[in-house]
Amino acid sequence: MKIAFRTDASSQIGTGHFMRCFTLAEALKKQGADICFVSRNLPLHLSEMLFTKGIELISLSAHDDEESIDELAHASWLGVSQAQDAQETLKSLSGKVYDWMVVDHYALDMRWESIVRPKVKKIMVIDDLADRYHDCDVLLDQNYYADMQTRYNGKVPSYCQLLLGPSYALLREEFRALREQAKVRNGKVKKVLVFFGGVDADNYTLQAIEALAELNFGLQVDVVIGAQHPFKEMIENTCVKHGYVCHIQTPYMAKLMAEADLAIGAGGTATWERCCLGLPTLTLCLAENQRSQILDAAVIGVLYAPKVGNDLTDSLRLHIKTLLANPALINLISNASMKLIDGEGIFSIIKELHSDLVDVRESKNIEVRRASHNDGIKVWPWRNHENTRKYIFNKSRLNFDEHIQWWNQSLADSNRLLLLGSLNNIDFSVIRFDFTDTENVVASVYLNPIMAGKRLGRPVLIKSLAWLKDNYPELKTVVAEIIPENVASIRLFESVGFKEAYKVFRMELSI
Prior knowledge:
single chain, alpha/beta, Rossmann fold, Aminopeptidase, seven-stranded parallel sheet, five-stranded parallel sheet, 18 helices, 17 strands, elongated
């Protein structure tokens, strides 16, 4: 399976988008996937991270075109127009066919995705803003929101599979490994972990250090910053002054979280890493796009998110003191966070991305055969189901006699072929081929409605086309006529190689 990732990282964007893509890419690569990243202005240390894992990086040229900025809140992060970025992305992929394009970028929406769509089989979007429209097959939002089941209503296609909530959190392998050893904290605090992300442009890290030092409770303190932290030297010197340990771009974040009794940090992916290991956290909002996530998570008790005043150091000192004086509260937060997430979400995501390939591999269990007169009785309720009639040209409901008459006439028609698809000897699909001449045929497929959503359409179509080719070697062209609203069928036929050749327009004339 070939998968391309389109994401960026910079001092403006931060590394969160890149890291969650990297986490998914690393897990997919272990499953045998062929991975590449398409990025613009990626910092050297992240480029090296990809290189060490054997992941290809395709770098797009740097741009800063203010005239191309659209109305999206984070449009300036892209540096070019969405159309230009999409064209450059496609050009960089050199015409290779990718099974999935994974997009994680606040400056990209359906305009970018619609340009890339014809060149990839499927698109997955990673988002947490729900502030724009997407043309995607899967959308992942790993954060918790009180309204997470409705916040993407009307913003994605009806066929889009939504993967919502921390149960799908993209956590690295070391967090899953330490999950079994992690314990609910008893409330006694001896060791504190401070981490506000790799960038932390406003230097919340230093203010947290100063607040802890002023309390002078004799706590062990681990401070983690990224290699690109703008105040790195200042933080290192302050840690030495107070006897704290400063870790720069550490590969042992999971271990530090597992060993800590309390954390002070920001929202984002780190929230779910801490929850996975049961680490109670005093969480500050560093960006407006994290506010709802943090407040909603606080309401269900998986973190402590106080309102801070203008003097951040003083506010931190007050709330740290409050937590240390309330071990029962720390214990409750730790217990609630561990119950929220088990760290296995990445496997559910991989299963979703692998599903089409699984269908093809399991096509050996799918058979197609010529339909018989007896099959007409079985198929009648499938054909009349509202979900079937919604997308066929003749939407009228047929009574039993009408249907059987049509079925038998079709079987007798030398210019029509009816096949039935079955899985493990259980029939589930009707495949119809209408011959327009000796070299061309029109195809249509519908399934038993109770089998909808089980991803059987693609493998049965592949099997049917193979059967047709074997039995009618003189055929040259297969055409599929699909009404525009039937997006799922359009995607189905496109996924096996059909391309749009022409459009047919019709107007109903009133009498």
